[in-house]
Write a structure and sequence with these properties.
By secondary structure, the protein is of the alpha/beta class. Helix content is 50%, strand content 12%. It has two domains: 163 residues, Rossmann fold (3-Layer(aba) Sandwich); 71 residues, Helicase, Ruva Protein, domain 3 (Orthogonal Bundle). The chain is elongated and about 65 Å long. The two termini are 30 Å apart. Bound molecules: adenosine-5'-triphosphate and magnesium ion. Adenosine-5'-triphosphate (ATP) binds next to helix 3 and helix 11. Magnesium ion binds next to helix 3.
């Protein structure tokens, strides 16, 4: 890897797929999603939903928010990942454990205990924030738990702010649950990137990794866009494999042929 970095004048690999907030390129829609979440949290408005296709940046935004508020002592932030949990009671218990609230034997008694803890937190000016990732896997009973939490409130403020991050099915599920849908303040959708945004993201990551001008030709950028369908994770994987091909060929530039070969290797098809 050292050799590759040296070849391209980089300090770090520019195209790793871990959701590192430092490599996040804030497009207008990513900014809107982030600001929508911050508004919901800071105004104590209750519920925001961030949804979009696979690999569009949901987990990265969730981590960004987690970092931002967990450093602030006036917030208590919990991050849950739905697939770890099976039932609504397990979900509730998981959340209570995150906030250090003792659970009770029955579901109803646990809800009551959590209500008391959330009320106390509110009175002590502690803002509870709950982030749920992979929320497309939440069952309706789990969403019902969230609805109950949103009833912990005064006339103007919720005692717990909830942000659900999930693939597009999440929005469809919410559409079918009127009681929860009417409590949503922000629906932030993350759509695939346009071709120009694709290049801007590549450029941003290249510079974040210590590079100067990125080495992709105009045709190569177009191919990145076409084969990735504009999905950020696919763009990054493709860019990473293409870059290795350029290195192996001792080429200072990444040419369209290298991207096409990389797309084949990753089994991507045009427009997918
Ligand atoms: N706006 C962006 N700028 C830079 N990189 C991005 C951007 N959006 C997503 N990525 C990158 O794409 C990859 C996938 O992002 P992330 O894991 O946040 O997606 P996701 O929406 O949570 O996907 P999934 O639905 O599969 O959980 C990560 O490497 C992330 O850094
Ligand atoms: Mg994710």
């Amino acid at each position: 890897m050292e050799e590759v970095l040296k070849h391209f004048g980089l300090l770090e690999p520019p195209f790793t797929v871990s959701p590192n907030p430092r490599y996040m390129f804030f497009t207008p829609q990513h900014k809107d999603a982030l600001y929508g979440c911050q508004y919901t949290i800071e105004q104590k408005n209750g519920l925001a939903i961030i949804y979009g296709d696979v690999g569009t940046g949901k987990t990265t935004i969730a981590r960004h928010i987690y970092q931002k508020y967990s450093d602030d002592p006036s917030y208590s932030v919990a991050m849950m990942v739905t697939p770890d949990l099976k039932t609504d009671t397990a979900f509730l218990r998981g959340i209570m454990a995150e906030y250090g609230v003792a659970t009770k034997r029955s579901h109803a008694a646990s809800i009551a205990a959590f209500r008391r803890a959330a009320t106390k937190a509110y009175e002590q000016d502690k803002n509870l924030v709950l982030l749920v990732d992979e929320a497309q896997q939440m069952t309706k009973p789990m969403l019902e738990v969230i609805r109950v939490f949103l009833n912990f409130e005064t006339n103007s403020s919720k005692f717990i702010q909830v942000i659900l991050f999930g693939q597009s099915e999440l929005a469809t599920t919410i559409d079918s649950m009127r009681a929860i849908k009417s409590r949503v303040n922000v629906f932030g959708e993350l759509k695939p990137m346009a071709e120009s945004t694709t290049e801007n993201m590549i450029d941003f990551r290249w510079r974040a990794a210590g590079g100067k001008e990125h080495p992709f030709t105009t045709d190569a950028i177009q191919a990145l866009f076409v084969y990735s369908g504009g999905l950020p994770r696919e763009i990054i994987k493709l860019a990473s494999v293409s870059l290795m091909r350029a290195y192996v060929n001792k080429s200072p530039k990444v040419h369209v042929t290298m991207v096409v070969a990389a797309a084949k290797e990753l089994r991507l098809k045009e427009g997918e």
